[in-house]
Amino acid sequence: MSRFIVTGGAGFIGSHLVDYLVERLRAEEVIIIDNLSSGSLVNIKGHLEKGVARLVEADLVREGEWVKAFRDVDIVFHYAANPEVRVSTVEPRIHFDNNVVATFNVLEAMRVSDVKGIVFASSSTVYGEPSVIPTPEDHPLKPISVYGASKLASEALIQAYCELYGFKALILRYANIIGARSNHGVIVDFINKLRADPSRLEILGDGTQRKSYLHVSDAVEATMHLVASRLGAARGAEVYNIGNRDWVTVTEIADIVVDEMGLKSVEYVFKRTTPDGRGWPGDVKLMLLDTKRLESLGWRPKLSSRDAVRKAAREVLGKEH
């Protein structure tokens, strides 16, 4: 199989996935579908110039000519979404449209073109506030944000299409993925704030929020490991957590960023937005995924959460390429 679609392929994780498909898998054709709302042409420019990938600029929320790109495709990597969890607290329709409606339209395009394989970028937020940590795939799903709810709704649609139309799917629940090309999240937020004022850092929440972080290079390796080992053999939809074995607090992340920026005596100002000190309403305060199901197939992360945060900080600062 060598013809692929990557929705959201100009974005953060999507563009790294395109790199893998083009450079390591030597795919016959990689079609990127992206509306460039959060993605960037810079991320895929080299591949487009070499003619090893092509871009279909389109909005998946609306039906259009982009549907024709699904003809004779082997696998669809559906990574297009609005990635900013905080947006869903003030503009929930954005996540409903960009996540749920877009997923439905992608599934319909696959059905019409008889494409059977899909890899879906879901999220740890589908678990909500877990009662078991590390959290396994069979934990009850009770999202506390519209973002998490939209990802769970998309999972349900994929499950239904697998049952009705014989699709094979990998539903991948990612932890916090970080690294080069990311334009949102705690590391980018801290760096931007410290560039504006190197003496003071505002931290949302009480700083004790503790989560697992995985470098994007590990995330893509895990994804393609699953594609190679499970997608062809899958019966319907299979669900996998993709995350790290350890976790770090927000304050520890601040310490790493401050250190990488070479700053001293930075005042941390904690901004409580909820009574229990989480970053914002709908933010999961504690998140560590159980990755035994994935690791049983032979995959291990190369970088710990702390090492991933440090590497990502260096990449965002331009110290690593």
UniProtKB/TrEMBL annotation:
<feature type="domain" description="NAD-dependent epimerase/dehydratase">
    <location>
        <begin position="5"/>
        <end position="243"/>
    </location>
</feature>
<protein>
    <submittedName>
        <fullName>NAD-dependent epimerase/dehydratase</fullName>
    </submittedName>
</protein>
<dbReference type="Pfam" id="PF01370">
    <property type="entry name" value="Epimerase"/>
</dbReference>
<comment type="similarity">
    <text>Belongs to the NAD(P)-dependent epimerase/dehydratase family.</text>
</comment>
<dbReference type="InterPro" id="IPR001509">
    <property type="entry name" value="Epimerase_deHydtase"/>
</dbReference>
<dbReference type="InterPro" id="IPR036291">
    <property type="entry name" value="NAD(P)-bd_dom_sf"/>
</dbReference>
<dbReference type="InterPro" id="IPR020904">
    <property type="entry name" value="Sc_DH/Rdtase_CS"/>
</dbReference>
